[in-house]
Structures are given as C-alpha cells and as structure tokens.
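Reopening this ticket.

The earlier resolution said the output was attached, but the attachment link was broken on my side. Pasting everything inline this time so it's all in one place.
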Amino acid sequence: MGDPVTGTAAGVPFTALPPSAEVSGPAPVVVAWHMIDAPRTDVAFAAALPLAGVPAWRVYLGMPLCGARMIDGSMDAVVERARRDAMLAYADPIVGQAALEFPAALAELRERLGFDTSRMAVVGGSLGGAVALTILATREIPVRAAALVNPAVRARSLVGVVESLLEQPYPWNDKANEAADQLDFVARSGEISARETQVPLAVVSGEEDFPSFREDAADLVSVLRGHYATPDDVVLARVPGLAHALADVPGIEPAPQLPIAKTVDDVVTDWLIRHLG
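Inline output:
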C-alpha cells in the first residue's frame, strides 16, 4: 500500500488513498465528499472512513470553504453562511459548487493517478451526501455504485436542523423553495432511477441521527426500491448507536477511527466490494 497523495486538482483539495492490495490493470475509484459535521475535511474523512478493504483508489474531495479552503483557518465562514441564510447562502451554493467542480477535478486526478473512471463509486456523508445524490440525479457521469452516510436527502430537513440550532424560523421565499426542490432527492428519485444503468445504492442511517434525516433516508430507499428493476440494489442500513457525526470534534485533522465509524466503514466497504467489481 502506497502513501496517501494530497494536493489540489482543478482547484479542489483532495486526499487520495492508493489501493491497499495489488490490482491488475487500472484500479477502480471511489470518490467521497465529507460532512460539514465532523469529519469536516477531506483528510479527516479519509481517516474516519478509509474503506481500505475496497480494491480501488479512494479519493476524498474537499467541500467548498472546508479544509484547505477554510477562511482564516476555521469553519467560521461556513457557520456564518448557515446563520445568514441556511438555504441560499449555505446548502444550495456549497452543494452546487461541489457538484460543478467535480468533473474537472476527476479528469485531472484520473490523468495523475491512472484509475479507471468506468468503474467508479460515489460516497457522501451528510451534506456531502447531497453532492453524491446530485451526481446521481444529473446522470452526466457514469457511476457503478453509491453509498451515503446520514445524508442530507432533503434540504428542507437540513434547514429545519439549522432552525432548531439557531432557535429561529427560516424565512422561506420563492427562491429558497426553488433551491430546496432541487435538493429534494426523494422528489428527484425518478431522475436517479432513470439512469441507463441503475446504480446500486446503500443508505447508512444512524439510529441516533436527526429524526428528519432518518425519515428522509427511509423515504428515499422506499421510493427508489419502487423505481428499480432490482429493488434489492437499494438498501437501508440502520446503525445502532450512530449519531450524525463520524468523528469527534473538531474533525478538521485526521484522527484515529472511532469504533462506530469502523462499523460504518465495514458496511460501506462490503457494499462497494459487492457492486464495484
């Protein structure tokens, strides 16, 4: 197993872990987007969810304003955006930018690392899950398998969590509702299932996660199973004892993998080995 590769690709910070076992020919690739909760950087997510058992490159991309793109070395700018406008300054632009910058970063990393993008899986945690779902729903990039961990399936639920943290109601308007509709992947499930080849999807849901997130995860799995030719290609994996985060705060630097994160790692690893080929 080689050393991690770090840097930026098309302006996106990344941490890439080489395949931990010999692979004949170009290896598949798993691309992952981290949470805004801990672990909240690409390098911290790689430590919390290394997926070492998957015979593939595992590439962790930094979300906007996180990790190497933090302003003044802290997450304060992200928190300020969530406070100012949870939908239009936080969820929508961060997910939108992460999805938009993905193709160029992927192309540059493929040239640099030599992995096989025809055998690619996407993984996302929390708001990073909304990025992975955006990639699935837009259907522009071939994906062989996907796994989500406590994903932000509906932006309205995410805004509801921010509302409860701030103890103030969110001022919904037409623009915010329009943006929230684009980040409602239960409503957009038909776009995900309309892929030429339906993508096997595992949704890992912590039994201690936010109630609305748990409900949304179950709804997404239920509706996709109804759309899929092979319903068992979509599964809901409930994890007892898992709250929303996968690492201890602050979750910016890599830290030893928590036992509960190891449980999640095992579930996602098994799924990707089964479906990435």
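Reporter confirms the inline version is readable. The first strand starts at residue 5 and ends at 9. The radius of gyration is 17 Å.
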